[in-house]
Amino acid sequence: MGWIEAIILGLVQGLTEFLPISSSAHLRITAALAGWEDPGAAFTAVIQIGTELAVILYFGRKIGRIIRAWFLSIFRSEWRQDPDARMGWLVIVGSIPIVVLGLLFQDSIHSTFRDLRITATVLIVFGIILAIADRVGRQYRTLDHLTVPHGLTFGIAQALALVPGVSRSGGTVTGGLLLGYTRAEATEYSFLLAVPAVLGSGFYEVSKIGEGSGPEWGPTILATLVSFGVGYLVISWLMRFIKTRSYVPFVIYRVALGIALFVLIAVGTLDPKAGPDF
User: Residue 201 has what pLDDT?
Assistant: First the structure.
């Protein structure tokens, strides 16, 4: 992987991680359109660490309160009813599905799930589901209403993003809207829920960087740094955008991209299985 390729993939990661359009799908598609090898699931997981560091910076005070209250709740019973401590436990609960499914399907994550025909299909299907959720969701709940069953539902929705094209934020926000949460509250929990999942996945895959035909450390670090800077700007914009706007523009984009992918595959412009993981 060259330095320019790393910069471009870092930009793509930062621009798409927090939007409901799937960053893993865009990394896969960008590489295919440029004629590069599929950067692979390991590279994708590692550079996502950059965007999660952006989340930690943006929500730093809140995350700090949650960690402190959660830790104290382990040893002091009076802290167990604290809202921040409760949120800490609910983030852990919501992280269970992606850990379990990630381990069960790790071979498919590196191979079958990266087929562009699957990516195109889920871009369209989950885009339509997001549109329905955005329209029919009652949007009256805040994170104060979050329960263990709701946390698990959010977590299952997040786990679907193991398939490129679903979108981690798109999946969790869709689940939240269907449960009646507001766009802003569902998005915030989506970001918090992603931190342990993405950091865990990134550090789990980090040993594969620099080995075999995989990307080298230098370009990977550069892409991670770029994704961090761009990702922070996107978070700031998105949190303002969703307070007054719907997710419809993203739905239209997802469906259009999915259709375009099918056309490019049909005419032979893109090889749906190109890449070393296949």
Answer: 85
pLDDT along the chain (278 residues), means of 10: 90 94 91 85 88 94 95 91 94 94 85 89 96 93 94 95 91 95 94 90 82 78 95 94 91 96 92 64
| C-alpha–C-alpha distance, residues 82 and 72, integer Å | 10
Q: Which two tokens stand for residue 41?
A: 């699931």
If you write DSSP's letter for every residue of 231-254 in order, what string do you get? HHHHHHHHHHHTTT--SHHHHHHH
What's the predicted TM-score (pTM) here? Answer: 0.88
DSSP H stretches of helix in 179-247 = 183-205, 217-241
Rg (CA), the chain: 18
**Residue tagged 């060259």 (tokens):** 2
| Exposed e or buried b per residue across 208-231, where buried means at least 16 C-beta atoms within 10 angstroms of its C-beta | bbeeeebbeeebbbbbbbbbbebb
Q: What is the rounded CA–CA span in Å between residue 51 and residue 10? A: 10
